Amino acid sequence: MFVILVYDFAQKRVGKALKISRKYLHWVQNSVLEGEISKANYTKLKLELEGLMDPDEDSVIFYTFRTLSYSKREELGVKKGGDENII
Amino acid sequence: MFVILVYDFAQKRVGKALKISRKYLHWVQNSVLEGEISKANYTKLKLELEGLMDPDEDSVIFYTFRTLSYSKREELGVKKGGDENII
């Protein structure tokens, strides 16, 4: 399945959140990752982020799609994220 | 159609970016909005954000979907965004 992950972590945890997420998905913007993921890895990713997060301070939204055949993606401006921009 | 909008604007423009985006979509996380939008309003939204942004510094990604029938949304942690959290 395809996942779009958007997160908002407190500064002290945001580096770790990115590190976890990048094991499974591609980094496409400051706090956004996306990619194909297996159901097993999706479960792992959720557990790892849940283990890291303070649920009173941090936020994660996962949009999951069985198919992307009816979707489009448009990007404006600078490309952020990606392997060249590790924080 | 349904749109997920994620942006990363420089600090001095981020308030305006949110203000523009909230005219058309629901604010669900710090830099994430989503919602149903007409094609005409989607075009307007893109033009307004393009007019605001510095393409060398800022980034916007739009994911658009004709249908959400094969998608799921999961949220962990605190709910950010929303009318009560205007910055």
From TrEMBL, chains A, B:
UniProt xrefs under Gene3D superfamilies: 3.30.70.240
Described function: CRISPR (clustered regularly interspaced short palindromic repeat), is an adaptive immune system that provides protection against mobile genetic elements (viruses, transposable elements and conjugative plasmids). CRISPR clusters contain sequences complementary to antecedent mobile elements and target invading nucleic acids. CRISPR clusters are transcribed and processed into CRISPR RNA (crRNA). Functions as a ssRNA-specific endoribonuclease. Involved in the integration of spacer DNA into the CRISPR cassette.
Tagged with keyword Cytoplasm: no
Residues holding Mg(2+): D8
Residue ranges of the TM segments: none
Pfam families xrefs: CRISPR_Cas2
GO biological process, one term: maintenance of CRISPR repeat elements
Subunit relationships: Homodimer, forms a heterotetramer with a Cas1 homodimer.
One Gene Ontology MF term: RNA endonuclease activity
InterPro entries xref list: CRISPR_associated_Cas2, Virulence_VapD/CRISPR_Cas2
EC number assigned by the record: 3.1.-.-
UniProt keyword list: Antiviral defense, Endonuclease, Hydrolase, Magnesium, Metal-binding, Nuclease
Entry protein name: CRISPR-associated endoribonuclease Cas2
Family: Belongs to the CRISPR-associated endoribonuclease Cas2 protein family.
Names of required cofactors: Mg(2+)
Organism encoding this protein: Texcoconibacillus texcoconensis
Leading EC class: hydrolase
